[in-house]
Predict the 3D structure of the following.
Amino acid sequence: MHFLSTLTLIFVANYAHVAADLAAFDVSQAQAPYNSNFWACAGSAGYGKAVIRAYEQACGSGGQVDPNFVPAYKAAKAGGIPKVDAYMFPCTGTQPTGVACKSPQTQINELLNVISANKIDVEYIWFDVEPTSGTCNAWNLGASANFALAKQWVSLLKATGLQWGIYGNGSDVSIRNQWSGIFPSRSSNIGSDLPLWAVQDDGKPGVSTVTTFMGGWTKAFAKQYSLDTKTSQCGGSLDLDSFAS
């Protein structure tokens, strides 16, 4: 979660057989927001959607809206990206800074206030469920407490009336399977009625190619299939995705 010639080749080669899906990418780093050339370059390569980090752990303050979110959104739209989604990487653990995470409701309110104030139009907001450790910790409360907290989050997300989805990794490879490392089991269901953005880093585009599921899901809405793709001409680093819409 973490160029044009290169990006176009990737797009053409990978999407020849999955034309029904939207070719997409997601970004979390600050390389993209103020670089209009990056967004125009990505837009001209044929990508139909970008997903931008809108909220970050910010463990020194208990969570915050990513300061790059609004300028990145505006640059993406100006660059010709047809659809832009947002994702939320919440503060969810006990932090080495000693600063407590803000309440889930406070974090949600902060994000939605910025979206409203800036008239940002996103189709989906994705709730990022993945562990981190070191500078900032995520989901380090123990399996049962993590599960209870995730259920609380999902209940509050649904109460906003907006379209939310869950980003998660249920890989069959145990060392990569983050879900069963966070929650009591692979089948722990925090909200399988929401769309799933599945992480399956196998280099194969197409939502229909997702084969690993967890948490009650049996199908995916999106797939993240290539992590940390380095780009040359447009600059920056991004992840490649397929979306149903």
Remarks:
- The beta strands are 22-27, 49-56, 64-65, 83-88, 125-128, 164-168, 196-199, 222-230, 237-243.
- The chain is about 25% helix and 20% strand.
- The CA atoms of residues 202 and 225 lie 6 Å apart.
- Residues 2-13 have pLDDT under 50 and may be disordered.
